[in-house]
Every structure is written in C-alpha cells, then in structure tokens.
Amino acid sequence: MPAHQPAHSRRTTERKGDVRERAILDTCEALLAQKGYDAMTVGDIAQGAGITRGALYFYFGSKQDVITALVARTVEHLWERSRATAQADEPRQAIEAAMRRTVELWNEHGLVMRTAIDLSLTVPEIGALWNHTADLFIAAITAVLERAGIQAGTAPEQASAMAGALCWMIERTFYHASQESREKLQEASETCEHIWLTSAGLIT
Amino acid sequence: MPAHQPAHSRRTTERKGDVRERAILDTCEALLAQKGYDAMTVGDIAQGAGITRGALYFYFGSKQDVITALVARTVEHLWERSRATAQADEPRQAIEAAMRRTVELWNEHGLVMRTAIDLSLTVPEIGALWNHTADLFIAAITAVLERAGIQAGTAPEQASAMAGALCWMIERTFYHASQESREKLQEASETCEHIWLTSAGLIT
DNA sequence: GGCAAAACTCGACGGGGTGTAGATTTTCTG
DNA sequence: CAGAAAATCTACACCCCGTCGAGTTTTGCC
Known about the structure:
The structure is a homodimer. The first copy, chain A, is mainly alpha-helical. Helix content of chain A is 75%, strand content 0%.
C-alpha cells in the first residue's frame, strides 16, 4: 500500500501491476456473477485478465487471496460511505436514512456482499472483514435504539442484543431479496424498517 | 467395527448396505464437526466408515450427494418434530412454545443446520430443502401474527412479509449463537422472542 | 544513454483430490 | 448348489491448485 504522496505527482506511479491487479479483481467479480465461487477456477480468472496462471500467482498467493482482496475492496467502500453519511439525531430520521443507504449498498454491491457472507466461515480473513462491518452496523443500530428510549445494556432485551438481532434480520432479508430484484429489495427494506421502528417503540 | 449381525431372522430388509449408508452419514457428520465441509475429503469419509473410496461411490454419486443426504435426514427430523408439536391458540403461548422448540432443534442439530445454510447456494438440492423448511416456519409465524391482529397480506407491513423478516432474523441469530454456546443460544432466543412479541403488538 | 535491480511473464512440474471402469468377492434367493 | 444381485476393491484418467526456475520487460539511477 503506497504512502500518501503529493496528490498530483507528475510521475506515472500507476505501475503496470496496479492495472493488472485491478483487471484480476474485476474479472473475478464478473466470473462470480457468471458461475459462482466454487465453479470459478484460477485459470478462468487469469484468462479473463489476459494473463497466464503463473502470472496471476505473482500478484496473489491463492484463489482465496483474490476473493479476499475483492471483498476488502468492496467492504472498504462500504466503510467509506458509512463514514461520509451524516447521522441524524432524530431516531425516525436516522432509521429512514440508514435503510435508504443500506438499499443503495445492496443494489450496488449485492453480489460481493453475498459472497462475503457465504465465505465468512471458510475464509477467516473474510469472516473478520465482514464481522467488523456487522459490528459497525450493530453499533449504529444500538445508538439509535438507545436514543429512542430502549434501555442500554447487553441483556437479552436491552439495546445491544436487540441491535444484533435486527442487524442479522436486515442482513439475511436483504441477502435473499437482493438475489431477486430491486423491487423485492425495496419491499424488504420497508418491512425491516417497520420492525425496527416497532422494536424501538416508535410505532404504537 | 460393529460387525455383529442379527442372526435371528428378523426381516431381511436390513441390507448390509443400509448399515453402511448410515455409517457413511454418521461419519460425515462427525468429520463436519472436526474439519468442516471443504477440508473433508471423500477418502476421509470412506475411511471413517470402514470402506474404500470406490465402495463409497457405490452408495453416493459424489461428495455433494453425501452431504445432501445428511441434510435431508436431519431436515426430515425437523419436519417430523414440527408436525408433532401441538399448536397453541393463544399467540403469546404459541410464540413461547415455538422459541423453545427452536432452541432445542438448534442445540441438537446446529451443526448440520449451519452446514445446510452455508451450502444452500452452491448445492441447489440443499437450497430447496432448506427453503422448504423456512417456508414452514414462515407460515407458522404468519399464522401467529394474524391471530395477534396483524393485518393479513403480502404488502411490506403485513403479516406475510413481516413473518419472513422475523424468520430470517431467527435463522441468522441462532446460526451465530449456536456456534458459541448453549447460553448464547438461550439469550438469543429471548431477544428474538421479545422482538417477535413487539412486532406482533403484544408488548406495549 | 546505459545498466543493474525490480517488476513481470511464462511454461512445466508435482501433488492431491475427484469420479469412473472393470474385476472380484460376498450375500441373497430359488 | 448355482446363478443373480449386492457390495467391495484396485487402478486409472482427469482436473485443478500452487510452486519453481528461467526468461523478458520496465524502472530507477548515474
């Protein structure tokens, strides 16, 4: 990872390898959509990126490394987006904004997010990445619940545990919906929002 | 090697192969706990069952066939249990009973259920099996919600869609909790029950 | 420009796992 | 007991992964 240099360096610091690396990741994402992770072979990726298998192993140590890098790239995008979003004070607004943003994320990155979830078990690196992402969401949900008057704490009926359950609900519901269509995703969002609001005590 | 054969002329229907088949499935389940699906090889299963790889292919066409059969065996057990459970009329009781039963199921079959979920994408057969199971649960939850006064229908805030989201919440929350400990599972159950009750309008 | 080092590419190899084929032994059944 | 069916084994061909050493280009520096 390059240290931050003067933004507009004349120098073409865009190494050839950087282009290749991106090509590999892009190809990997495309193949993921076409045939899925298991069916996808290292030879396929290399071919799609216009290099040989041997060359690919110069950039990545294994097939898992490739998919992990792809997930990392996507997940960093999520974090960036989350950080950039202003947090509303009013719970109702915060919830609505969060759900809208989540729909966007799944619309844009659904494929890689689903893959990350699927591989969380078998590839520890990806598991860690995704867990961290989930923790960010759970923390955000917890904050909203507490601001809405739910008692803080980690007991089964307090904010923290409830936020966990709500987070998994959203993850899984979106996971399924994003396989279907954008319309389903929108409907799923509304359902989840409704349950979240109800759980926060904001709907009588 | 449990080689004692019933010399008494019970029915001849207990072919030697039936015993082997069970041994294979049992071994598969044991290895699943030890090393996980990916790391587990067909040779391992055969060895554990006391036969060679070649012999195993007499019973199952592939590694996927083995795991599918294991999931089918477990899932049928779930259906049986569900059918055998009397359904309470009173929503609060129905919810409590359902959650208690679910905890039992995950305590007993958590490993295979988690595997089924993980492989739902890559093994269509398993996906179908698990989807059907989920549909049973969703139907049950829908019924309870409607009896509790939630409007029937498939729109985002009506009983059917809410039941879906709640089912996925329970699935995912239990999935994670069952990896940890029985205590976590119990806590997860209480959290889910609370959200379910709230969503049903049974908690002010 | 020139030259060494780093970056990059390739083809070939070994190892491990899968699924199949054919021969062989065990177990029923009449 | 004989023949069919069930069950088992060994051997093989294939695919894919990851590594290696040997070449080729690009980059950094004088």
